[in-house]
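Tokenised fold entry reproduced for absentees:

. . .
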Amino acid sequence: MLRQLYGKVALVTGASSGIGRATALALAQSGAKVVAASRRITEGEEIVRQIQEAGGEAIFVKTDVSKAAEVEALVNKTVDTYGRLDCAFNNAGIPSTGLLTDILEEDWDHVINVNLKGTWLCLKYEIREMLIQGGGAIVNVASIGGVVGFAGYASYCASKAGVIALTRSAAMEYAKFGIRINAVSPGAIETEMLATIPAHQLAQMIAMHPIGRSGKPEEIAEAVVWLCSDSASFVVGHNMMIDGGYTVH
């Protein structure tokens, strides 16, 4: 991989597994200093160890993105350690299942608080820092579920549709300040979240990907690195579908 982010400082939430883990490693390989954040300490520290053993720089910060004080502390720790924040990948999220009328209020709130409110909180504190330094690049994780509906996933789909709308609004507000904000919408990707889908539903979902397979976390990571780099300098407010053609239907 070209070291197109050499010397940059990149923050990744949900870095302990799946897409977040792959992206933290890819950002480090591209030359960035990485701040890996997640609620899972052991896995998060393991990512840092792997980056450091490969010759990169990284720290881990335990963070629950649904809590404003922890997100603010995460950004502050990033700046205290590395002096700035150039890129952010707001990836932390949780799945949900259940028919709409069966969803408990507390479960609805939990999904929205992590997936949507958590993305808003990350944007809030990341943008504040980027305004001070004069620019940056942010990528939010949405989903094909934010573009098309899935029966049994109402709260998840609603949260991800919200992330897409939030991304567009934020991009319009801060592009003039040199802050590029975009989103990626993965299809079926080989992660722990995908493993929560019943086998028959998963088979049907994969069959609807024209490419004929599920995706790999590294395939999302490559796109995130590009969106964070100067190569994507004219890309603003875009929701990039990385779905093997699923939404072409």
